[in-house]
Specification:
By secondary structure, this protein is of the alpha+beta class. The protein has five helices and seven strands; from the N terminus they run H-E-E-E-E-H-H-E-H-E-E-H. The protein has one domain. It is globular.
C-alpha cells in the first residue's frame, strides 16, 4: 500500500511539472495602460469570421495613447503606440484600460471561439508576415495615400486569415476571399486587395525574417498585436544569451 501511495505521489508531481511550462507561457509578461485614439493607415472592408457575418470593420493600423506599463510593458515608451487587431468581435478601448502583455501564441483572449490560443505555428506565420512585409509608414502621422490604406488593410486581412482559418497544407492554399474552414471557424473578406494579401501569405515558407511580437490582451476589449521596439528586442536577445552563457558556466563548474 505504501509503494502504491508513493507511485501515485510521483505521478502527480510529474503531471504537475509537465503542466508548469504551459502555465508559465500563458502568464502575463507585463501590462500596458492604453486608450484608442483612432486609426493610422486603414480602410473599411467587409469580413466573415471570428463571429462576424458580412460586417464592415476597420482594417489596418490602430493607434493608442500609452500612459503606463509594467514588466515588458515598459519596453514601449509612453505616448503613441500602434498595432493590428487580432480579435474581430470585441470593441476598441474607449477609456484607458490596463492590458496584459502576452506572448503572440497565447492570444487572442478569450480563447473560447478558437477553442484555445492560436498556438506557435500560427504565431510563426504572423511573425514572418510582419518581418517580411510590414511597412512602418502605415503607422506614421499621415495623411495616408490610397496605396498605404489599401496595403495596411490587406495586411490586417492576412493576419485574420492566419488567426481564424485552419492551417493549410501549404502556404499557397491561403486565400483571404474564401472561408476554407468547416463550422464556425474560418475567415473571408471583401473590398480588400486580396491579390496583395494572398501574395504575401503564399510567400510564408519559414525562411523569412520574423518580427518580435506581443499581444496586448484585455478580456472585454479587442486584443492587438504590437511589435517590440527594436532596441528592446536586441536587449531581450542579449539577456537571453547572457542567461544561456551563465547556465553553461554553471554546468561546466
Amino acid at each position: 500500500m505504501m509503494k502504491l501511495k508513493n507511485t501515485s505521489a510521483t505521478l502527480f508531481i510529474l503531471a504537475l511539472l509537465l503542466a508548469l511550462p504551459c502555465a508559465v507561457e500563458a502568464y502575463p509578461l507585463g501590462t500596458v495602460e492604453i486608450v484608442n485614439t483612432g486609426n493610422a493607415a486603414s480602410e473599411t472592408i467587409t469580413v466573415w469570421g471570428g463571429g462576424l457575418q458580412g460586417a464592415d470593420v476597420y482594417a489596418g493600423v490602430y493607434t493608442f495613447d500609452k500612459t503606463a506599463g509594467t514588466g515588458e510593458g515598459k519596453l514601449w515608451d509612453n505616448g503613441l503606440v500602434t498595432g493590428f487587431c487580432t480579435e474581430l468581435t470585441e470593441t476598441v478601448p474607449t477609456i484607458t484600460s490596463k492590458y496584459s502583455v502576452i506572448k503572440l501564441q497565447d492570444g487572442p483572449v478569450p480563447t473560447s471561439f478558437l477553442g484555445g490560443p492560436m498556438g506557435e505555428a500560427k504565431a510563426d506565420y504572423i511573425s514572418e508576415l510582419w518581418g517580411r512585409f510590414y511597412n512602418s509608414s502605415w503607422a506614421s502621422e499621415g495623411p495616408f495615400t490610397w496605396k498605404q490604406n489599401s496595403q495596411a488593410s490587406a495586411f490586417a486581412s492576412a493576419i485574420w486569415e492566419i488567426v481564424y482559418e485552419d492551417l493549410p497544407a501549404i502556404p499557397a492554399k491561403w486565400d483571404v476571399t474564401v472561408d476554407g474552414t468547416a463550422g464556425s471557424g474560418g475567415f473571408a473578406s471583401k473590398w480588400v486587395d486580396a491579390d496583395l494579401a494572398n501574395s504575401w501569405l503564399h510567400k510564408l515558407d519559414g525562411t523569412g525574417p520574423k518580427a518580435d511580437l506581443r499581444i496586448f490582451s484585455f478580456n472585454g476589449s479587442q486584443d492587438y498585436i504590437a511589435q517590440v521596439p527594436e532596441p528592446a528586442t536586441i536587449a531581450l536577445l542579449g539577456l537571453g544569451g547572457a542567461f544561456g552563457l551563465f547556465g553553461r558556466r554553471r554546468n561546466a563548474a
